Every structure is written in C-alpha cells, then in structure tokens.
Amino acid sequence: MSKSISYLIRRLGFYLVAAFAALTLNFIIPRMMPGDPASIIFARFRGKLKPEAIEAMRQSFGLTNDPLLVQYWSYLKGILGGNLGTSIAYFPEPVSNIISSGLFWTIFLAGFSLIVAFSIGTLLGIFIAWNRTGKLDTLLPPTLAFLGAFPYFWLAMLSLYIFGFSLNWFPLSHAYGNQVSPGLNLSFILSVIYHAILPAFTMIFVSLGGWMLSMRNTMISTLGADYITFANAKGISSRHIMLRYAARNAILPNLTGFGMALGFILSGALLTEIIFSYPGQGYLLLQAVKSQDFPLMQGIFMTITFAVLAANWLVDIAILIFDPRTRK
Amino acid sequence: MTRKNLYQTLIFGLFIFCSCEEKTTRDREGLIIYQEQFLSWVRNFEPLNPASVPRWPTRGGIYEPLYIYNPIKAEWLPWLATKYEWRENNKKLLFTIREGVQWSDGKPFDAHDVAYTFNLTKKFPALDTRNSWEYLKSVVAVSNTILEVTFNRVYVPGFDAVAGTYIVPKHIWESLKDPLKFSNPNPVGTGPYTEVLRFDSQIWELGKNNNYWQPEKPYVDKLIFPAFSSNEQVTLALLSGELDWSGAFIPAIDRIFVAKDPKHHRYWFPNTGYSTFLHTNTKDPVLSDVRVRKAISYAIDRSQVVKVGMYNYTKPAHVTSLSGPMAKWHSPDITSKEDWTSYNLQKASKLLDDAGYILNNKGQRLKKDGSLLELDIIVVSGWSDWIRSAQVVSQNLNKAGIKAKVRTYDFGAWIGRMQRGDFEMSIGWAEKGATPYNFFKGMMFSEYVKPIGEVADVNWHRFGSEKADLLIKTLEKTSDKKIIKNIINDLQHLFIEHAPGIPLFAEPAWGECNTKYFKNFPSKENPYGPLSNNEQPSFIFTLLNVQKR
Predict the structure, then answer these.
(1) Sign of CA dihedral B162, B167, B171, B176
(2) Which residues of chain B have a CB within 8 Å of the CB of A101?
(3) Does A132 touch chain B (CB under 8 A)?
(4) Model confidence over A17-61: pLDDT tens digits?
(5) Which of A56, A191, A279 sits opposite B50 (nearest CB)?
(6) CA separation (Å) from A108 to A102, A119, A174, B280?
C-alpha cells in the first residue's frame, strides 16, 4: 500500500511541475498577441468615441508598462490568492465571478453528456464484443462510426433546425426558460432539463461511437487471452466472465480516455454552447479572445489546465484500483 | 411491460409539462429589445467609466446628459438643461439647468449634481471619457439652476463633451470608496427607465421611472432583455415575435424578414451622415501621390460595391463623404469641384499615365522599376459585408491595371496594423460627430500624424495638411455659425483637392422592429429619431415614444 501512495505522490509532483509550466505559458502567450485591449475596445466604437478616451481606459484597466518579470510575479501572487484580476470585456467584474457563472453550466451539460456517452458506449462495447457474431455487432459499429464522422456543428445545427425550429419540440437557445427564475424549485429544474436535452443529445450522439469502438476492440483482444479460456473451462458464469474478467481489464484504455475527456469538458463544449446559445465556459472563452480580455482568457485557460491535470490524477487513482499490477 | 409503460408515461408527462411551461405566451407588457450580444448578463449600470461595459440603456435611458444630439435631424435638443450661452469671448459656457427634475429615488436634481459629476471626472481622470479637463478650468453651480463652465483656453467643440456627459447623483456617488470599481447594481438616475425588476444571467427587466420629468412618458411599463449570442438567434426571435426592437445586421432583409409579415415587420436603415472608407496609407511610396489615390477612386464602381457588398442597403459615397443628415453642410461650390467618387475608367487611366505608371500589353500597370503595381487591401476577418465590398473594389482595380489583393486579419491584428501604419489600403470607418469637425480633424490634422511604426489612435492613413491645421484651429475658437459654415466649406474643398482617404459608401444605421404588439417606432414617414438602438443616447427618442398597441 505504501508503494501505491508513493506512486500517487510521485504523480502529484509531476502534475505540479506541469501546472507550473502551464501557468507560465499562460502568462506569456497572451502578451505575445498584437494590439492592446484599450485600443481594441476604443476601436470597437468605430469612430464614435473620441481618441482622448483611450488614456482614461488604460488607467482604468491598470495596464502597466512594468517589466515582464514584475508582472509575472504579481500574476503568480494573484493566482495563489485566488485573485484572477478584473475582466476587461465585462469591466469591472472580477474574472472569478464570470468564470464561476459559466463553469456550472458547462460542467452540468458537458459532464452529464460525457458520463452518459461513456457509460452507454462502454456498455455497448462490452456487450457487442461478447456477442461478436450477433446482429448488433454487424450493425452498430459502422453506423455509429458513420454518424461520429459528421462534422459536429453541422449535426448540431441540423438537429436545432429540425427539432427546435421546424417541429418546435425543443427550445432554440439558453439553459432555462425566460419565465422561470433560477433557484431550487421544480419548474426551474424541469426547465433546465428540458433545455439540456437537445444539446446533450447531439454531444452524446457524436461521441458514442468512439467509446464503443475502443471498448469493443480492446475487449475482443482481451477475450482471446488464456485466462478467459481458463475461466470458461472452470465453468464460471458467462456474465461474470464478461464483466469481471474481460471488461475489467479491457476498460483501462477507455478509462484513460475518460480522464482526458473529463479535463477537456471545460473547453470542448465550445461549439455546442455557441450553436445552442448555452451560457457556458466555451462561449466565454470565445468572447474573451475576441475582445483581447487577457485576464479572462488566463482565468479560463487556468481552469482548463487544472481540470485536465486533476482529472488525470483521478484516473491514476482509478487505474490503481482497477489494475492490481500498478500496486506492486 | 408495466414498468416500460410507467417510464413512457413519465417521459411523456415530463415533455407535456415542459411544453406547457415553455409555450406560455410572451410577456406583452414589456418591450423586448436586443442591442448587446452577450450570452449571460453581468449586472453593471455604471455610466461614466469608458472602460466599463454597462447594460444598454444605462447611457441615455437611465442616466441623461444636458443636451441630446438627434442624428436624424442633426440637431442638439435641450435635455437636463434648457438652454446654453457662450460668454466672455467663448471662454465661459453657461447652462440653465431644468427645474422640476427628480432622481428616481425621489430626491431633487439640480445644478450641484451636474457640477459634482464634472468634478468627479477631474478627480478621477479614468472617468473623464472626453479628456475634458485638458481644456476645462472649472465647473461650478452658481445656483440650483445655473451651471458655469470655465475653459482654460477657447475651445468651442468642448461643448459636445460637456453637453454629452451623463449626469450622476451626488448623493450616491459621494459615499463611494472607489468609483473606478463601482458597478452600480441598483441605479438611481433621471432617465425614463431606472428600476431593475429582475436580473438573471439570461434575462433581465428594467421598469419605468415613476418620477420621470416628462409627464406621462414613457408609455411602456418595462423593457425586457433576453440574452442572444448570435445574429441568427436574433433573426429567429424577430421572426417569431419574441423580439420587438433590434439593431442587428440582417442580410437580404426584405426576403428574410419583411416578406414573412409585411404588415408588422419593418426596418429602416437611414444614413448616419458619414461614409465607410477605403483608407490609403499616404506614407506609402505609391499612395503618397494624390493622382494615384484619385485614380483608384475613379476606378471603383461604387454602385456595384453597394449592390454586392451591402445588399443595396445604402448608396455610393459623396465626394466629401458627407451625406444624409450631414448633407446640409455641403459647400455651395461643391458642383464646380472635381467629383472623383464618380466611376470613370478613362480618368483613372489618364491619372495613372500622368503619375508614370505605364500600361503593359497584358493590361497591367508597371512601376518605374518595371515591377507590377500591387496594393493590398486589409479587412477584418468575419466582417462579411466589408470583405465582399473589398473584393468588388479589388476586381475594379484589377480592371484598371492595379493588382489589388484582399487580405483578412483577425480584429486585433488588423487594428494593430492600422495603428502602426503597416498597411497599404484598408476598409474602415472615419471619425464622427455632431458637426463634420471631428471627421475633418481625423482626416487631415497634422498633430494626429504619427511616424510609421508608432501607434496612432486616429489618422491611420497619416495625412496632415498645414492649411487644414489652421482652419481646424480657427474653428475650435469660434461659436459664430456663419464662420463655422465657411470653414467647413474650406475643409471640404481641401479634402476634395487632396483625397486623403477614399469614401466608398454612406454608412447606414441598422434598426428593425416588429410592430405587432407595439406601435409608433420611428420610420422614414415619421423620422423623429433613429430606429437603430446602437447610437447612444439617441435611442431615447424611441424609448419615449413607443406605445403598446
């Protein structure tokens, strides 16, 4: 057991170094982009704002000409104190407030669809690999691979047009209806679920095939292993072999993939959020890039970085539990 | 089987429930408006800080200035002040402040609030949007109704900045620790709409000010602002009657919007009075020659640009770039001047011959060193109307023998190139204002010209003229309407002579409305103000006149 703890601590150390590198890159990259935010916001007024306003804006944003090292130091100090600065596009709102408003919806929508797609895809993969001469196995993999090959935005827009606009079954935008107020009440919760159905469905639809195929393939090679034949010979029930003997080993690559996907939830729902006007993190990122909102961009990238690293660490723990070999 | 039925019933029930909840008809008491593209609202009603992004209609609808400029009629209307007067050779400006105005919390409004607002911007330069304290000496409330503004030098255009400043209540701002970080979540203003009835991330509502100083106005009880993230969402909402008033750009609007319900779906895109430009970098060795600039202008078929690039929503630019409500400034001698915005390939070709660019047998113009005459046009990527316009211009110029390539850049990169003068030609806007003063100053004032490589906030094309400097400086010292008119005439003649930039087409202001539930929006037949809600603070005319059906 002590070995596995030292393994986890080693991994944690590795992730800390990675986090530090990411933070540094996160500081450098936006500063290499052309243009400064005050001029860009000024230019957005297309001649309606007088040039004299630029100086006033630079003062408000606290844009400094300090040497980079000084800026870097105050950036690191800010992050440790949980202070991500003030957003420029939503001035004077603090970045942490804006991110937390988007974070909830992204985690809810993308997290929910990821878990559903992962569970259904993996279960289907197990099942069709087990019955690999059945009708489902000849039908499902090509169909889902075909559907998964569609460009996501096209599929999402098509379903928005058919189910949202033409048939009018689902709402066209937003995370909840305009008549309800956010809070812990039934009508709000139902409204949230109703609004999430279409975007979540499209996300599940395109990612299902990937989970299923990778599970099916590793499962089939696992099924060829000697210990499966041995278990069969011992007369263990086939359900037990399928889930405990084969699937438990075959799920490891899928689990790693799940960890990666979990981390990328925070950025990956960009297209969904734009098409369905869903108020999440991805849309915020787009707006931050458009208005050169460095503090907001940095804040979002940082949450993504930390989410990816944390998710990978969790996967390390999960693999430790599933795969006894790592514990030795 | 029973279990399956149970699930089916549950799911079905859920759908029915949701549908019932969603299909409730829209709120007919409130005017539903789109102006800002946000996916989730941030509660900010701070009007002074130019860096702050307050919710529409903070600047104009919640907080009001002393005078409001109506761009359709091109005139200033008295608002929180009733009249003004220049004194002591234009070094003093006296405002008579309107009596009987109340803040929305019931406290009285007077000249002390106005004086306080100006002195606040003196104390915090970050709030001084117009950099007014560069020419102001003091702003004092002489009495409850008289405000005395003293200038440290004669600068008559300073009136625009003073009259247009949004006035905030002294009794609220006084107690703030840091007005720069203030987001003013519960506004107290003098405007027609001040009460935030509801504020959720996706939708918010603003109720009317019961203490508003114009009796009986506004007519509509509340404004509703759902969040829209794209122009497509806006168009869909306009079509389905979920949106009453919008300032979005909609392509092929007659077919997409009006044809669906010609009785109620209306739009009005009047000219702002100014033009969209093909900017020419006058520090470029080729474009520094006025003959080349004029030749380029002659070679452009503007009616084609307007048709292909702008869906015929506007018209070709006037040679002074002033049109629509600004046409009243046209010089009487304008007809006798050269009209280089007309389409004339012969003249273009003659000018290029004179400038020494020889035509080869393939129809291309050559520089003196024998290389092809090539000029790039840079445009912001994604601004599709301007990209299409640039493509038409490029085809037109190719016909005249000038190889013009269109290059698109991300907004940040584009503006960086413009500011540093790192471009040959570009599609862009020009300065605007209540008189053509700002426009001509931005086009020809030498002090704005920065060397190539240094950031210039205006005059990106880097043209300066000593004659223009003199005229502009004289203009800044006079309040005599006749002298102003004469100087503006001279500036137009100078502009025509030097062609510092090439006006392409008159700039339209987008405005659409659905008159199914509300009436009395401005229109071509009833032009009391702009239909576009993008211009602060002139959207207030619509807010005050729209009525429920």
Answers:
(1) negative
(2) 40, 201
(3) no
(4) 988 888 888 888 777 766 666 776 676 666 566 666 677 777 666
(5) A56
(6) 10, 16, 13, 51
Q: Check B230 against A277: CB less than 8 A apart.
A: yes
Going through B182-311 in order, the beta strands assigned E by DSSP cover: 193-199, 203-208, 222-226, 245-246, 265-267, 271-280
What proportion of chain B, given as a percentage, has pLDDT over 90? Answer: 74
Q: What are B57's two structure tokens?
A: 């209609």
Within an 8 Å CB–CB cutoff, is residue A279 touching chain B?
Answer: yes
* Amino acid, single-letter form, for residue A271: L
DSSP A268-326: HTHHHHHHTT--SHHHHHHHHHHTT-HHHHHHHHHHHHHHHHHHHHHHHHHHHHH-GGG
List of chain A residues whose C-beta atoms are within 8 Å of the C-beta of residue B457: 39, 42, 51, 54
Write the DSSP string, A83-100. Answer: ---B-STTTTSBHHHHHH
Q: Which of A60, A102, A173 sits opposite B233 (nearest CB)?
A: A173
Looking at beta carbons, which pairs linking B144-147 to residues 24 or more positions away fall under 8 Å?
A: B144/B97, B144/B99, B144/B110, B144/B111, B144/B112, B145/B96, B145/B97, B145/B99, B145/B110, B145/B111, B146/B94, B146/B95, B146/B96, B146/B97, B146/B111, B147/B81, B147/B94, B147/B95, B147/B96, B147/B97, B147/B111, B147/B114, B147/B115
Task: Enter the ipTM.
Answer: 0.74
